Amino acid sequence: MTVFRGAVLASFIAFGANAQQKLGFVDLQRALVEVEEGRAAQARLRSFGENTQKEIEKDQDALKKEKDQFDKQSATMTEAARRQKAGEFEKKMLDFNAKVQKFQGDMETRQRNEIDLIVSKMDPLVQTIAQREGFTMIFDKSRAGLVFAPAHLDLTNELIRMYNDQYKDTKGQAKPAQDGKGTGKSVSQKGKEEPKK
User: Fold this and answer.
1) Is 35:118 a contact under the CB 8 Å cutoff?
2) How far apart are CA 188 and CA 132, in angstroms?
3) Domains observed in the chain
4) pTM of the full predicted structure?
5) What is the pLDDT of residues 101-130, one digit of tens each?
6) 175 phi and psi, to 5 degrees?
């Protein structure tokens, strides 16, 4: 499958070269975690995960203490009392496992919703870049099986800059990514200095 995907991508590149088409790519995985909304989403998910983990650990410790106490007292219990206590503990364990699974499902749902929201806003921006700069095709590096491409075809920083400009937070603090690669310029303006205002 990987070889086939690479062959398809290579054929696209070859076709683009022959037809003098303009190709580019974005790394959506990187853009997701570097845009300001992505950073905020990560913080929300991390907070939810930490709070959830604390609650799970608290319940787990309580169950362990109850199990230890039951083990110590079981020898002095009647058979009926021991069966009843064991049944009660088993129910608590089932409830605990169900709670853990629910938390895991909630986390996956939250992650998916956060990602889908940001990607839905990025798609039109990628189209804007393509139309503005005359790109025929823009690939997603994280999904297209792209192994190598010249750095000047990487439009990720421009996507991050545009996203942060368009979707500033309420305090207007969103800023473009500053990783040493992004210039905040249009792709067609690379190599030129922007006039100072």
Assistant:
1) yes
2) 9
3) 20-188 (3.30.910.20)
4) 0.67
5) 999 999 999 999 999 999 999 999 999 999
6) -135, 155
